[in-house]
Design a protein that fits this description.
single chain; alpha/beta; Rossmann fold; SIR2/SIRT2 'Small Domain'; six-stranded parallel sheet; three-stranded antiparallel sheet
């Protein structure tokens, strides 16, 4: 018998319990940086060295972090369900936690691309430096979807949500668009769950259960609502 399909939209709250902070934790600063300086095309044009330094630091932090019970708990659902993770996070903790199907909306910290070609990606575990070139001869940059840039995986994510039997939102404020709009594509009859320490402002959604708790606790509590 075909397994029911759980689609999970995850955000920074999932990885925060592994020690990875988000800029929303500190009044618009991301580890002491103004997001406009390090996470926009304009910031890259103004000071590419600063941007590379910032993501080189993030890469080291992610490499040192470990998956938490939210990551492993979502992965364990694959025993009874078909599970697809759509994440806003750039880390690889879902994969290291055991999830087999992960779609990254905002890019991946362990990948890089040329400034001219969004399609061709390269793996990177160390630092990206000024002067590091792609095969097309242009500077390499982090494979991160910055603010003001299009989200290439959004169309795929919408189709995944439309195929869901359950839709779970965990660890996200639902304030970053277009990712937050994915909730709108979940069918009205679909069981929906939002797990977050602060309940996002959501109105006019039917079949919605709010679990006001950290991601690790919420993922553990989720299982009692699910029927294989």
């Amino acid at each position: 018998m075909k397994k029911k399909h759980i689609v999970v939209l995850s955000g920074a709250g999932v990885s925060a319990e592994s020690g990875l902070k988000t800029f929303r934790d500190s009044d618009g600063l991301w580890n002491g940086y103004d997001v406009h300086e390090v996470a926009t095309p304009g910031g890259w044009q103004k000071n590419p060295q600063l941007v590379l330094d910032f993501y080189n630091e993030r890469r080291m932090e992610v490499a040192a972090a470990k998956p938490n019970a939210a990551h492993t708990g979502l992965a364990s659902l694959e025993k009874d369900f078909d599970v697809t993770i759509i994440t806003q996070n750039i880390d690889d903790l879902h994969e290291r936690g055991g999830s087999s199907k992960v779609v990254h909306l905002h890019g991946e910290i362990f990948k890089m691309r040329s400034v001219a070609d969004v399609q061709t990606m390269y793996e990177i575990m160390g630092d990206i430096k000024i002067g590091d070139k792609a095969v097309d001869g242009t500077q390499l940059r982090p494979y991160i979807v910055w603010f003001e840039e299009e989200v290439p995986m959004m169309e795929k994510a919408v189709k995944i949500v439309q195929d869901a039997d359950y839709f779970v939102v965990v660890g996200t404020s639902l304030q970053v668009y277009p990712a937050a709009s994915l909730l709108q594509y979940a069918a009205p009859f679909l069981p929906k769950f939002i797990i977050d320490k602060k309940n996002p402002a959501v109105n006019n959604y039917s079949n919605l259960t709010l679990l006001k708790m950290p991601a690790t606790e919420g993922v553990k509590a989720l299982s009692k609502y699910l029927i294989p």
